[in-house]
User: What shape does this take?
Amino acid sequence: MNKQTESKNILFGYLASLGAACSYGVSANLAKSIVNNVTEPLVATSFALMFGFITLALIYYKQLVNVVKINKKTFLFLFLAGMAGSTGVGCQYYAMKNAPVFIVAPITGSYPLFAMFFSFIFLRKVEKQNFSTLIGAVMIILGVTLIILSK
Amino acid sequence: MTGILFALIAASGWGSSAVFTKIALEKIDTRLGTIVSLFFSTIVMFTISLATQIDSFSKLKMPDMIWFFAAGIFTFSLGRLLNYTGINFVGVSKSTPLVGTSTLFATIFAILLLGEKPSPLIGIGVLLVTIGIIFITKSK
Assistant: This one.
């Protein structure tokens, strides 16, 4: 891969990550309305997941034929990713029920540090960690915690 | 103590999910990976919610589905697809903290669209998040 393509890919990755954050930001406001006016978080998440899955499957239906080519290991990791993510959502809900927000928010907000720790252990050969990224992650966690606590 | 324990499990769950995703996406297209992961998440989440909150299902009305559809589009179709794309292109260590800025965007939207009032503490939080983003995007 030449340097120009690599730079474009990195920029695309950053924009996608910030785009995801923006999208999650919209959904947080939607979730607030749903939990206050419609139903329980777990029930809402189940239906939202179903609609999210159906929509993407319809848009990228041509990709679905490749499901048969996915090997068992990849399936296992996708399953684990889904399980771990869903467990996170469920546990956050129970954490909020059992402890005040000012305790739960900083802990759940620190998940990028957990991701970096797991990445350091399991993806050492694929990903390089550096001090600058760690400082950036800590700054973001502190900033996000302040924003949550100000509400 | 129970709350703290659940919060720690939540944080480690999301953290490990990003790593599992990175490993899985080495072999397949991001779009397909997102669809398959959403399929598994849907099964798991429906199982948990049916087991623990079956009464809530009977109270649902048809118009509620519009809310769930909107949440599904922003959280999972768009959010998870972009999240996985970020992990695939820049890696877990750089992508995850950037995705973690979603609270900042949620606050901006709440101020702009719902008329919530910003406080000085939010200003400091925004400043810290911005500096954090600069640190991550400038790191080699």
User: Anything to note?
Assistant: The longest helix of chain B spans residues 64-90. The mean pLDDT of chain B is 89. Chain B has seven helices and no strands. Residues 19 and 92 of chain B are 7 Å apart (CA to CA).
